[in-house]
């Protein structure tokens, strides 16, 4: 019996080796691919996480910039982008803050002033914020509009105004929805420019301006009415009331020609009828529309915000007496809130007890004496007295109607730089109320609103 025992072909062993090597190579390639994909995915996840951390940090920088605007106002940003002593206005040495050292989250932010805030125009600003997180970096630009509260005119507003003694109003105007009495006792140099509105200082009333004696809001046309005989009164060419008229073809015609925004014939509400014409103002609504005056000083929400600010500063009071005056050195932008309606209604706050807020009037915004500070005084449910040689720079707002909201006994050579919003203002004695560029450059941050516009991730 013969058995066929063929020996293995050495070529078969070579083929098996090749197959084995190919399989090993394939496994290695697959393993390498899986590892590479895994590493890449882990890297992408890390980079994505770092980018998210960086974006959150940049957003935090924007939030803090907005908080700065609401807390400190815009005065110290006029030198942006090269403010030497304010990092919020310095692009080379911006405000920097570490948020989380463990994740290396931090931001560097500064605010660029594109257009300044004025009495009648909103300001435009741009927040630049660079955020870092881990190894991620994100850069943002956010545009911000900053405006003054339109409810408060930058002047003296009341529902009735009475002159007396030798009171003067300098570089600002008087607005009222009631009567103005003893006009000749209110010294307003004709032709002097209103610092806020850029027009000659004047009295603007939706009722009557009279040289007769009186104190109430309602009045009839009397012999003392300045516009009874003519729409153009030579002593008060810029005054406006409900008895005035067109200044065309009068000796006051240049008033209408040179300042058409406020004196030319205008239909303010779009109903097809004229609301303002020369020295004539149709009614309360027309006066408010012309100068942007609200029916109330603040909304309920705004009052609550002001209460909260005053509480945080330790300047919230429920009595008209026994209060302490804020120190401008430690609280440069102070809000004093007298909440008297419930606990001390009708009480009178003696503003002579507010100390440390006086300065020289007539300062420019660039004056070395023009310090970065502001004072807002809100009296709800009470009255105010300003006299006895007091010198004060403030926004004074009395929110309540009669029988409250009266500013009186303003005598004893008091010097008040700022604005007044009240129910009744008695301009008696040797009082001077004025505005200047310095005051307008230092409006209380609590009277400014900041709203964001375009939001750009500029590194995308």
Summarize the structure.
The chain has 460 residues and is an alpha/beta fold.
Helix content: 10-25%
Please provide the ordered H/E string of secondary-structure elements. HEEEEEEEEEEEHHEEHHEEEEEEEEEEHE
Number of helices: 6
Number of strands: 24
Pick out the low-confidence regions.
none
Shape: elongated
Tell me the fraction of residues in β-strands, as a range: 25-35%
Query: How would you characterize the largest beta sheet?
Result: 11 strands, parallel
How confident overall, as mean pLDDT? 89
Walk me through this protein's architecture.
The chain starts with 9 loop residues before the first helix and ends with a strand. β1 (95-100) and β2 form a beta hairpin. Helices cover 22% and strands 27% of the residues. It contains six helices and 24 strands. The strands form four sheets. Strands 5, 7, 8, 10, 11, 14, 15, 17, 19, 21 and 23 form an eleven-stranded parallel beta sheet that branches. Strands 9-6-22-20-18-16 form a six-stranded parallel beta sheet, with no helix packed on it. A five-stranded antiparallel beta sheet has the order 1-2-3-4-24. It has helices at residues 10-72, 253-258, 260-263, 284-291, 300-313, 437-441, and strands at 95-100, 105-115, 123-133, 136-148, 156-158, 160-163, 167-170, 174-176, 180-181, 186-187, 203-205, 276-277, 280-281, 316-317, 333-339, 348-350, 374-380, 383-385, 391-398, 406-408, 415-421, 424-427, 432-434, 448-457. The longest helix is centred in the first third of the chain and has 63 residues, at 10-72. It has three domains: 50-148; 174-295, no CATH class; 296-450, no CATH class. The chain has 460 residues and is of the alpha/beta class. The protein is elongated.
């Amino acid at each position: 019996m013969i058995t066929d025992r063929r020996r293995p072909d050495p070529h078969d062993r070579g083929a098996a080796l090749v197959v084995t090597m190919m399989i090993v190579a394939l496994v290695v390639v697959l393993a390498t691919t899986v590892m590479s994909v895994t590493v890449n995915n882990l890297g992408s996840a890390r980079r994505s996480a770092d980018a998210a951390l960086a974006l959150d940090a940049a957003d935090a920088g924007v939030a803090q910039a907005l908080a700065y605007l609401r807390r400190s106002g815009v005065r110290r940003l006029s030198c942006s982008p090269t403010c030497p002593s304010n990092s919020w206005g310095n692009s080379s040495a911006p405000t920097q803050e570490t948020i989380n050292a463990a994740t290396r989250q931090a931001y560097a932010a500064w605010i660029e002033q594109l257009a300044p805030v004025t009495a009648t125009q909103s300001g435009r600003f741009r927040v630049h914020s660079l955020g870092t997180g881990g190894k991620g970096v994100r850069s943002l630009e956010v545009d911000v509009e900053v405006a003054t509260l339109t409810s408060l005119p930058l002047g003296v507003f009341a529902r009735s105004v009475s002159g007396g003694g030798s009171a003067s109003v300098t570089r600002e105007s008087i607005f009222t929805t009631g009567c103005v009495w003893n006009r000749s006792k209110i010294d307003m140099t004709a032709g002097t420019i209103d610092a806020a509105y850029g027009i000659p200082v004047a009295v603007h009333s939706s009722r009557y301006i009279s040289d007769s004696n009186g104190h109430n809001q309602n009045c009839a046309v009397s012999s003392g009415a300045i516009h009874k005989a003519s729409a153009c009164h030579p002593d008060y060419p810029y005054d406006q009331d409900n008895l005035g008229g067109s200044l065309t073809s009068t000796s006051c015609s240049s008033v209408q020609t040179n300042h058409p925004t406020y004196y030319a014939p205008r239909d303010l509400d779009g109903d097809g009828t004229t609301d303002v014409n020369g020295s004539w103002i149709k009614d309360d609504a027309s006066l408010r529309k012309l100068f942007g005056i609200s029916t109330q000083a603040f909304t309920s929400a705004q009052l609550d915000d002001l209460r909260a600010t005053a509480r945080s500063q330790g300047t919230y009071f429920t009595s008209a007496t026994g209060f302490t005056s804020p120190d401008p050195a430690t609280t440069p932008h102070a809000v004093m809130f007298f909440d008297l309606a419930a606990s001390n209604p009708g009480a009178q706050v003696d503003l002579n007890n507010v100390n440390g807020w006086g300065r020289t009037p007539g300062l420019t915004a660039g004056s070395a004496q023009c310090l970065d500070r502001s004072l807002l005084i809100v009296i709800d449910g009470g009255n105010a007295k300003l006299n006895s040689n007091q010198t004060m720079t403030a926004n004074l707002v009395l929110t309540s109607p009669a029988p409250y909201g009266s500013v009186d006994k303003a005598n004893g050579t008091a010097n008040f730089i700022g604005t007044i919003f009240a129910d009744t203002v008695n301009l008696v004695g040797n009082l001077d109320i004025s505005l200047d560029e310095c005051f307008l450059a230092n409006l209380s941050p609590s009277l400014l609103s900041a709203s964001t516009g375009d939001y750009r991730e500029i590194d995308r």
